[in-house]
Specification:
With 73 residues, the chain is mainly α. It is built from 3 helices and no strands. Helix 1 packs antiparallel against helix 3 and helix 2 packs across helix 3. The model has no long low-confidence stretch (mean pLDDT 90).
Length: 73
């Protein structure tokens, strides 16, 4: 018998803190909203904002990585 292994998604903790401070909801509610387990207007806003902030943070990291790659010691 094979085991059914599921991996838990990891969320950017800094973005979770920002959203928690802005909306005042618990980390659990925010994670469930992002995952789609919660429905409603606020949950949709949280999901959109998380995705937007996460994409921006990834872009910033990629930009910085490119800058560091271009610099030669």
């Amino acid at each position: 018998m094979g085991k059914n292994i599921k991996t838990k998604p990891s969320y950017n903790q800094e973005i979770l803190k920002i959203i928690k401070n802005k909306y005042g909801y618990s980390d659990d509610y925010i994670r469930k909203s992002i995952r789609g387990d919660r429905v409603g207007h606020i949950s949709d806003m949280i999901k959109v904002e998380y995705n937007k902030l996460n994409n921006e943070s990834k872009k910033a990291i990629e930009t910085k990585a490119e800058q560091l790659k271009d610099q030669k010691p």
